[in-house]
Structure formats: structure tokens, C-alpha cells
Design goal:
Helix 2 packs antiparallel against helix 3 (about 55-75) and helix 8 runs antiparallel to helix 9 (about 230-245). The longest helix is centred in the first third of the chain and has 22 residues, at about 55-75. About 50% of the residues lie in helices and about 10% in strands. It contains eleven helices and eight strands. The protein folds into three domains: about 25-75; about 105-205 and about 275-305, Lambda Exonuclease, Chain A; about 210-270, no CATH class. The strands form three sheets. The chain has a three-stranded mixed β-sheet with strand order 1-4-3, covered by helices on one side. Strands 6-7-8 form a three-stranded mixed β-sheet. The two termini are about 15 Å apart.
């Protein structure tokens, strides 16, 4: 038996997308409003002029609306989900029925997973908080989520979600707005964790050596397989290192710990970035009216899934 649908915090934005076009309720209210306006116009038309073509067309449109409105009223409460919400809900349902988990991976998510502890360490260094991977799943009848860290000393959750940016070009600026995906995730974490707010903390940390090796190899193929000592390839590799390394001492330590040598193409490294410039935080306040809207959408998804 498929369990009752609950939304994962990380996927909440997917079900909160609105459908393209007007909802049944909007269509009903628009028809009622239009009918009222047309009737008011009709009431101003002198009786002797009501047979004129233009006025006859007005009366015909009134009759048409009056015949359509009962059906619109009957269907005004119909649940209409956006295509993104439907797609997510159907995949969730199939995954539950078949005991499958969707797996999405690219270089960005791979770095995020591989560098989670590095982000914890950066936050710990700058904020004076000892962080540890959180094993606690938060849930209620509407939503579930597993926030990133908890305080290693107190054993309590920290209202932060750590994200590792791919490189300096994807690391956000203070003037940026938090992505809706993370805004909704924070909102649910704050709700489940009984906090007034939740913060997304972006960290710019070293790209793991194995991923940088992969980037260099990809570049070699893109350049057509040149001599690996050629200026074009070496220069490209130096740029890859500059995009992926922000603390050379920590990078070399990780490479040594991996037990696999890493060939540095930049022989005169001077590109470290201060730790305090490699962290950016965006806080989301808990808004219960949005949580109520989320709960209503979860109910709508459940009703949709009952028909599938």
C-alpha cells in the first residue's frame, strides 16, 4: 500500500508551482464579473434600440455566459496542479510503489556531497560552532526533511543549511536573492524544527582532487587531445585549478589523504581566497500563511494521486 504523500523539504518548490493559465475558480469568478458588467450595459440600452446588431450581440453574449456559468460554478473547486507538481507527484508515487529512489547526479551535486564536511569546517572556523552531520529526520503529517548539521557539543540542530558552490562564478553575492528551492526548504526546516527562521549558508571550498582531474581530462578532449605539455593545455589546466582551489594547503592535504598524486600545473600559486570571503548567508523567516498554502497544496496532490 502506497503511504500517504508528504513533501520533502528539498522538493517543496516543485509542488508550489502554479498551473499555466487560469484556475477553475478564476474562470468562474471572471465569468460572473463579466456577466455583471454586460448586464449593466444591457440595462442602459433603450428598448427601441435593443434589436440593433451591436446590441443583439451583447444580449447573445449575456445568454452564452448565463448558460456557461452553472458548469463553471460546479467545477470551480476542482484541483488543478501545475505540470511540474504533477510530474513530481507521479514520480514519487511510482517510486513508492516500486520501491525505487530517483538518482540525479552531476558535477555540481557531486561536489556538494563530497565537500559537505569541508563546508562544516569553514562555518565552524568562522562562526565558532562545532558542526556534525545530522542523523535526525524531522517530519510531521505534511512534510519531511533532514537538515544538514547539528552542534557537536550540544547535540542540537543548527538552523543552517550548508551549500557548497561549484566555483567562484556560482558563489552568490550579497545582493542576490535566495533561490525559491532553498527558500521553501528553509521554510519547512524552520517549521519542522520549531524555529523562527532558517539560513542557507553558501560556502566556497576546494573542489576535490578527483573532480579537478576529471575537469582537466574533459578539457583535454575539448581541445582535441593536444600535447599535455602544450601551452594551450597547461594554461587551461591552470585556469581549472584557479576555479577549483581556494586554500592550497588544505587541497594538498586532501590530495595526500586520497593517496593519489595530483599534478599541479600552476607552479607559482598565489590565488588563495581568505576564508571570511568564502561564506555567504541568506536567511528565510518562517511565514505561517505560506505553510498553510503548502498544506493545502499537499492535500491537492493527495487528491490528484488518488485518481492515478
Amino acid at each position: 500500500m502506497t503511504p500517504l504523500f508528504r513533501i520533502r523539504a528539498s522538493a517543496a518548490s516543485l509542488i508550489m508551482t502554479d498551473p499555466v493559465g487560469k484556475t477553475p475558480m478564476e474562470k468562474y469568478l471572471e465569468a460572473v464579473s463579466t456577466l455583471k458588467e454586460k448586464k449593466e450595459k444591457w440595462g442602459l440600452v433603450p428598448v427601441e434600440k435593443r434589436s440593433q446588431v451591436r446590441n443583439s450581440e451583447l444580449k447573445a453574449s449575456i445568454d452564452k455566459l448565463e448558460s456557461e456559468i452553472p458548469a463553471l460554478e460546479k467545477s470551480k473547486e476542482t484541483v488543478v496542479l501545475g505540470e511540474t507538481a504533477k510530474s513530481y507527484a507521479l514520480q514519487w508515487q511510482r517510486g513508492q510503489r516500486w520501491n525505487r529512489t530517483a538518482d540525479f547526479s552531476n558535477k555540481y551535486t557531486q561536489k556538494g556531497s563530497a565537500c559537505e564536511e569541508d563546508g562544516f569546517d569553514l562555518v565552524a572556523t568562522l562562526k565558532g560552532i562545532m558542526l556534525y552531520k545530522n542523523p535526525i529526520k524531522l517530519e510531521n503529517e505534511w512534510a519531511t526533511g533532514t537538515p544538514d548539521p547539528f552542534n557537536k557539543l550540544t547535540g542540537k540542530l543548527i538552523n543552517k543549511d550548508i551549500k557548497s558552490s561549484w566555483d567562484w562564478t556560482t558563489f552568490p553575492y550579497k545582493s542576490d536573492k535566495l533561490d525559491k528551492v532553498y527558500e521553501w526548504q528553509n521554510m519547512i526546516y524552520a517549521w519542522l524544527g520549531e524555529e523562527e527562521s532558517w539560513t542557507t549558508t553558501y560556502c566556497l571550498v576546494n573542489t576535490p582532487p578527483n573532480l579537478l582531474r576529471r575537469e582537466k581530462e574533459r578539457k583535454w578532449y575539448d581541445l582535441g587531445g593536444p600535447d599535455r605539455n602544450s601551452d594551450s593545455y597547461v594554461e587551461a589546466c591552470i585556469e581549472i585549478e584557479k576555479r577549483g582551489i581556494y586554500d592550497m594547503e588544505l587541497f594538498l592535504k586532501r590530495a595526500a589523504d586520497d593517496g593519489e598524486p595530483f599534478e599541479l600545473h600552476c607552479k607559482d600559486w598565489k590565488y588563495d581566497v581568505p576564508a571570511n570571503e568564502r561564506i555567504m548567508e541568506f536567511t528565510t523567516m518562517l511565514e505561517m500563511e505560506k505553510i498553510e498554502a503548502l498544506k493545502e497544496r499537499v492535500i491537492q496532490v493527495r487528491k490528484f494521486l488518488e485518481t492515478q
